[in-house]
Amino acid sequence: MRVLSKKNIITLLLIVAVFAVVQVLISVKIINSFYEITLATICINIILAVSLNLVTGFTGQFSLGHAGFMSIGAYVCALISMNTDSTLGFIFGILAGAVAAAIVGVIIGIPTLRLKGDYLAIATLGMAEIIRVLFLNMEITNGAAGLSGIPRNTNWTWLFIFLMATIILINNFIRSSHGRACISIREDEIAAESMGVNTTKYKVMAFALGAFFAGIAGGLYASYFYFIKPNVFGFMKSVDVLVIVVLGGLGSISGSVIAAILLAVLTTFLQQFTEIRMIIYALLLVAIMLFRPQGLLGTKEITDMFKSNKNTEKIE
Amino acid sequence: MKKLLSLLIASTLIIGSLTACSGGQDKPSTGNGDAKEVKIGINYELTGDVASYGNASVDGILMAFDEINAAGGINGMQIVPVKIDNKSDSAEATSVATRLMTQEGVVASLGPATSGNFMATIPVAMGSKIPVISASATADKGVTTDDKGNVNDFVFRLCFNDSFQGVTMANFASGNLSAKKAVIIKDNSSDYGKGLAENFRATFEAAGGTIVAEEGYVGKDKDFNAILTKIKGQEFDVIFIPGYYQEAGLIIKQARDLGIKAPVLGADGFDSPVLLELAGPEALNDVYFSNHYSSLDQDPKVQDFIAAYKAKNNVDPNAFNALGYDLGQYIADAIKRANSTDPVAIKDALADTKGFAGVTGTFDMGEDHNPIKSAVVIGLENGVQKTSVKVDPK
Amino acid sequence: MEQFLQQMVNGISLGSIYALIALGYTMVYGIIKLINFAHGDVYMIGAYIGFAATTFAKLGFFPALIIAMLASAALGILIEKVAYKPLRNSTKIAVLITAIGMSFLLEYVMMFFVGAEVRSYPKVLSDASFNLGNVVINMQQIYIVVTAIVLMIILQYIINKTKIGKAMRAVSADKDAAQLMGIQVDTTISFTFAIGSALAGAGGVLVGIYYNSIDPLMGMMPGLKAFVAAVFGGIGSIPGAMIGGLSIGIMETLVSGYGNSMYRDAFVFAILIVILIIKPAGILGKNTKEKV
Predict the structure, then answer these.
(1) What pLDDT does B35 receive?
(2) What is the SS3 assignment for B117?
């Protein structure tokens, strides 16, 4: 596969075009500052959802603790960029946060990933709660009062860069031999192990990679929304991300992207129905699971729908 | 590689959805629409962890607005509240504030109730040049002034900050009650509890007292027997509980049940009829808390408010209700004095407030956008307010 | 020493509440392998029904308890029929998300109707306390512990000695085989939900009376901790849930009482993770070998 194949160039041009169009819409104020916030939420949620999809959708490891990793990225990035307010400090902060989240991911992943299914879900939930309690009691994080006055370095350009980097890297990881090993674990862990796949290694790898990108999302969040406190990263946040992944389809990256957009539009729309918005949200959640438990796209990607005839020889 | 195409389609979808959103929404959004009504934003915690504080505040605000509208509005303009829920989430508070200011065309925005969520709206207010006011964001730092101590022009509050109440109660403990040793049981999940505890400790220790124990709990806890049993074994003169009535009521009850008789101190978070319901009258003796006003105050303003609130809701008002009510009156008063719906003019009128007489006290707006008003320390006897001591700001 | 005894009293009464909720969790998980996140909210609804029965209908403790248990049982059956039954052959994650959705639904429907403010129960049980040396014991604490033990014994009897109990055990062991043997699987599962939910409802009423404070989000934390308790004791085991609940309650109390109260919740979850790693089947659980 050549790097400069025709398809890659077209893809690149299209990505640049998408970026440019949104940028223009922002500068001529068709996307006003309110929609810009929605846009930022969408980008951050996509990063979270795609990274969780790697863990839950592709590797089949059920995590309810994604918000915990996000909070590590957010706090590290906030603390670094509050002390060195520059673009360099911001980028360093995001990456440091992501690395910290990944390290915690490895430390937690090695013991807990021996668990399966519901037990793993509860263990990861517990882990996220422990992280939250630690942040609540630490001096440097200012406890429940949270960190305020975080410089806003995130803008559409940075969001887009990190968004695309996440999608492309995770996409490539899944297409690699490592990714196929991960998918084999999801399909049948015992069979994969007997075929010589080092399941522990790949599970921890997927978990750490997921944590890394969750950390990036956290950093972007902190530097976009000025303010973070431990309660932002509670159980609800993890559930929100999981809902996006499941709604889009476990094992479908484009599904996560679409679901993140749909949910953001829905939340924005529901803002007006103050008293009943959470009821509607809950009802939708149940209804979707009842009528389409595999999510919008299942394990398919959106591109699969456009090439039904061309690629019949392809085996997935 | 084929999947790269999916990226694009996904990205196009982002644009698609956004442009679709922004399509019909290009309303002109200046405050000076038609002169018959004026829109005021209400950005409160109506669902989520702290929904009870948000809802209580909004009850008070809307009560004030109804009264004003019924009396002919502000200079003939009816107030149109635009109420949006921020789910007790700080990012959502930012989003709601932006929506109110750029989409809904409000001339000012009220709330959120808690400091953290309120702080998240400050950059939006400063950017849009539209005032935001909270009646209950008490954090010392980062609210009306930024890190460097500069005043945030468009940000105001109606309540005391944590240091004033923390210091007041510490002085009350060491002065009026001659306490030497104190225990702190703080709400560790709220900035309010944390801020009060820090200020109380500093002042109490400076006055020669010692804090023998500092325990913490998180909001919605119900069982405090373990920490109470722990402190029961120690010697102390007072217990300070920086937190809200929902937990404080239970702590006081369980403490008295365990035989802890020491006086209990608190702050305006205690002011709610629910405190009495939870703790019961027998437990509420020797309980003192600082507040904005006392129901003993015979000022007709206070008594009328209490009567009107009770007639409407069938319960006594709590501090959030009263502060919310004053907040509604305060913004209306400022718009009236500004005689304009221009947010900047309203901001100037808010800053230039002298002798505003509210239920929660008569105050001048200070240079740093904190109200200069005195507090009262209320003493309870069998759950009923019996004594009140006025404390003036330094 | 007196302080330690007092802490044990505190821990046992807190633990009995966890145990009551954990009993329901463990039964439901044992039979359909579902973490019923809505269980904590059934407990909340039970508390509100008890509140309505005592406050508005002016009923006494026992009638209110029975009404709350019956209503909770009906709610449990309804939840199972509407939300979980159609998903019986779906992926685990779909069912879990549905459970989370049901939990939110119950919480916010309640919040819509009763508001977010806490309510307090009227005094329907004596809260007289007596002293044993310096240890204070409250009558209500005794009620809670006794109710939990009695309900556990009844449950143990139902499961081990009655026909429906046998059916429950059969469905739990192998659903398909049970069906082939002529056991009505759907009825059995409904029955399990009914019993589990009734216990949660009873727990709600007891908590409402003991702590005198209920609110629409009161089920979240106790629900999670009760699940931890169920896992700790060995999921699917009735005595295990009881032991798990008491252990979690006592450990929590000891952490607050002798350690740092601010790390109490973190400690509970740390215990969970350690237990899951060392002995995933729990204290009384049976180890099952992985089969291909």
Answers:
(1) 64
(2) helix
Which alpha helices (H) appear in chain A, and where do they start and end? 6-27, 33-52, 66-83, 87-112, 117-137, 156-175, 177-187, 189-194, 199-225, 235-248, 253-270, 277-291
Residue C206 contacts residue C121 (beta carbons within 8 Å): no
What is the mean pLDDT of the segment spanning B28-49? Answer: 75
Contacts of C111 in chain B (CB under 8 A): 47, 51
Interface test mutation site (partner B, options A303, A306, A311, max chain B beta carbons within 10 A): A303
> Domain limits of chain C?
2-117+156-278
* Domains and their CATH numbers in chain B: 37-160+299-373 (3.40.50.2300), 162-291 (3.40.50.2300)
| pLDDT tens-digit readout, A61-70 | 989 999 999 9
How close, in Å, is residue C37 to chain B by CA atoms?
18
By C-alpha distance, which of A282, A241, A235, A290 is closest to A264?
A241
Q: Does B260 contact A at CB distance below 8 Å?
A: no
Mean pLDDT score across all residues of chain B: 88
pLDDT band, very low/low/confident/very high, at A311 (cuts 50, 70, 90): very low
Mean per-residue pLDDT over chain C, rounded? 89
C8: how many CB neighbours lie within 10 A of its CB?
Answer: 17
C112 closest CB neighbour out of A129, A136, A279: A279
Q: What percent of chain B has pLDDT over 70?
A: 91
The token pair that represents A284 in the structure block = 């939708």
User: Cα dist. B259→A216, B225, B256, B334 in Å?
Assistant: 52, 11, 5, 51
Beta-strand relationship, B375-381 and B384-391: antiparallel
The model carries a pTM of 0.89
Nearest to C280 by CA among A65, A124, A123, A110: A123
The domains of chain A are located at: 32-315
User: Which two structure tokens, joined as six digits, stand for B223?
Assistant: 């069982």
Backbone angles phi, psi at B212, to 5 degrees: -80, -25
Domain A32-315 has CATH 2.40.420: no
